[in-house]
Amino acid sequence: MDKKLWVDCFTDKFLYLHPFISEHLAFVNKWCLEIKFTESKIEIENDFNDVDYFMKLLEFYKIKRCDYIDISDIRLPAIMLCDMFYLPYTRNYNINNMEHCILIKKDNNNGTYDIYDDNPGYDSALDYTVIRQSFKSFILFEHETGSAVKSFEEELLFFSNNVIQRLNNTLPFITQLIDADLPELKKMQLLSNFKTNSMRFNSLCRVYGYLAKTFSDNETIIQAYNSVLQYTQEWSLIVGIGHKGYVSKNTRFWSKINERLKDIAETEFKANEDMAVVRFQ
């Protein structure tokens, strides 16, 4: 698989199994994150827009989801939901329990399976005993009767009817984090732990990057793409500085983060403003 801007551990693997789906449609509304802050963690809650949209996408392409919890039901290739605690190529190995998706490509008939994982990058064989240890369920799909291939016009109509052209307001979360009565090192640790979830904002670039290429003469789409790109890059920089500051135990990094958190509210407003005026028909 080609290296692409990473969003989550599932979607690109889903696209691998369904190459007839237009890539940008699989990432729609993944940016609709409701970010919650507590003194112990930063997390995503009530992410219903993403779930609702995915079910509509399956129906649109005549795909039925059918999960299996019996590891003997391996029908390859397949996406497997697993626990990273048991995956030896990950940082969580024997340290943290964390749900994750890997793509099992084929049985090598020697006690190993070829798997693909895009984060962390791994494209090689994995022993069956490891797969069995980490196994939670298979995320499988079946095609229903009728053609799943859609025309450009059908996909554009589906997209325009379902896309949410705004970002959820993150200002309350930013204000809470800045004002929290916590050591600066703890705040940077929270941002560092939020790094994976923050990559969901990359979905903006996957979708609006496609739109910018497809409608290259549409100035409003180009402007929207530039705005969401800036927004995504700023979030990436903030969590990156937080991670660097926490790992190095250097609290001087917090002043940089503090200023960028204040500035990103303006960037978010501009992105929402530019996204709202885009028309696709």
Which geometry do the CA atoms define?
A: flat
Q: Sketch the topology as an H/E string, one letter per element.
A: HEEHEEEEEHEEHHHHHHH
> Helix/strand/pairing class, anyone?
alpha+beta
Strand order of the largest sheet: 7-6-5-4-8
List how many beta strands DSSP finds.
9
Rg calculated over all Cα atoms: 20 Å
What do you see in this structure?
This protein is of the alpha+beta class and 281 residues long. The protein has two domains: 11-64 and 145-276, no CATH class; 67-139, Roll (SH3 type barrels). The chain is built from ten helices and nine strands. Strand 5 (99-107) and strand 6 form a beta hairpin. The longest helix has 30 residues, at 219-248. The radius of gyration is 20 Å and the shape is flat. The chain starts with 10 loop residues before the first helix and ends in a 5-residue tail after the last helix.
Structure summary:
The chain is α+β, with helices and mostly antiparallel strands.
Features:
two-stranded antiparallel sheet, 281 residues, alpha+beta, single chain, SH3 type barrels
Draw up the topology in text.
Layout: H1 11-17, E1 34-37, E2 42-45, H2 48-60, E3 63-65, E4 78-83, E5 99-107, E6 112-118, E7 121-127, H3 128-134, E8 135-139, E9 141-143, H4 152-162, H5 171-179, H6 184-193, H7 195-198, H8 202-214, H9 219-248, H10 253-276
Antiparallel strand pairs: 1-2, 3-9, 4-5, 4-8, 5-6, 6-7
